[in-house]
Amino acid sequence: MTAVFLKPHKEESLKRFHPWVFSGAICRVVLDAGHKGDAPEEGELVAVYSSANEVLGVGHWQVGSIAVRILAFGAEQLPKDFWRERIRAAYQVRQTLGLADVRRDDVRCTKENNTFRLIHGEGDFLPGLIVDVYAGTAVIQAHSVGMHVCRKEIAEAVLAEVPQVQNIYYKSDDTLPFKAPVEGEKTGWLVESQKTASLKDKSRSDEFWSVENGLQFRIDWLKGQKTGFFIDQRENRALVERYAKDKDVLNMFCYTGGFSLYALRGGAKTVDSVDVSQKAIDLVNVNVARNFPEATNHTAVTADAFEYLSAQKAQGRTYDLIILDPPAFAKHRDAVKNALRGYQRINAKAIEMIRRGGILFTFSCSQAVDKEAFRLAVFSAAAQVGRKVRILHQLHQPQDHPINIYHPEGEYLKGLVLYIE
């Protein structure tokens, strides 16, 4: 196996079990005998050593500032049955949380929840890998070439260790490094039952529904964002339900309407769902019709968020409860400054439109924006508008998106619930 040797004193973070080796920490690379080329192949397994030849771990090599993502510490090779053991451990966590069903025959809309994240990258000690479960279908996303190379082994392990999974869809066309030399399909079925065979040429399925806290959602894992749904807002959606009774609700950046459905079930007077994507709005309407076929108090609008808020303000429209759950404004550190201006601007517009005694749910899913910076942006928005604001809740990602205690960077979702006077 190719060996990676670190510079003196650069092994300390690995000894604290942080899973990343940065390129600047590397002193030299000794290629495996018979290796083609003059550098490790992206996605190749490499062993990492200190400058004193101490074994530190084994992981996937990649091009970029993060040169190695460690899979197993203190080892020169991956242990036997590595993938099954790691996925088994992750599944046991979800069983402990009460999210995972152990029966193979219960994969339809017959229980309160059959939707959960099975693997959350570094949080489950598998950096570069995401696996979400929707009823009987697991959707795998690789964020590193190494995980792409191992996709079939991962699929086999998921099928073996997660009883309710019958189908596995691979969806990594938007998540793999842009210029990475990737062999094989980046999207497609890795395992499919007879029921899913007909889905190959469809954008989504009319037969497979997922359930979250008793609400049913059609998940477009084929062409939807991420793996098809934003599972990380499950607990925060339930909190919206608690506040929604008799309120006029605005759900901005609604995607497929998760917050909207919870607000409707919570007894909202009206719910407006807004997203710039017509495909998302189409799915909102499908999901509302499925769960609330008689509802007349829901409106779905295709519009840019800033333009919509400006237009509604000009018309004197106000709300009792507004949800702001935008896509990541900053995908990397260089974009943080502009992102914070964006958060301040959108929150200011929302705060202006909330009635006295109203509630704002506001979020940032940008990992590059820390919670203090986000809170300062929201504070600045409130000061700009001149409203009195109290923080009622500080929100974060749910338990099936765990944070590796040795990798605090895994805390990415930040949210505030504000009371507006």
Describe the protein:
The protein has helices spanning 12-15, 82-96, 145-149, 151-161, 234-243, 258-265, 278-291, 305-314, 336-352, 371-385; strands at residues 2-6, 20-22, 26-30, 45-49, 55-61, 66-73, 115-120, 129-134, 137-142, 167-171, 187-191, 209-212, 215-218, 248-252, 270-275, 298-302, 319-324, 354-364, 389-396, 414-420. The protein has 421 residues and is of the alpha/beta class. The protein has three domains: 2-73, PUA domain (Archaeosine Trna-guanine Transglycosylase, Chain: A, domain 4), CATH 2.30.130.10; 82-209, 2-Layer Sandwich (Transcription Regulator spoIIAA); 230-420, Vaccinia Virus protein VP39 (Rossmann fold), CATH 3.40.50. The strands form four sheets. Strands 16-15-14-17-18-20-19 form a seven-stranded mixed β-sheet, with helices on both faces. Strands 2-6-5-4-1-3 form a six-stranded mixed β-sheet. A five-stranded mixed β-sheet has the order 7-8-9-10-11. A hairpin with a 2-residue loop joins strand 8 and strand 9. Helix 2 crosses helix 4.
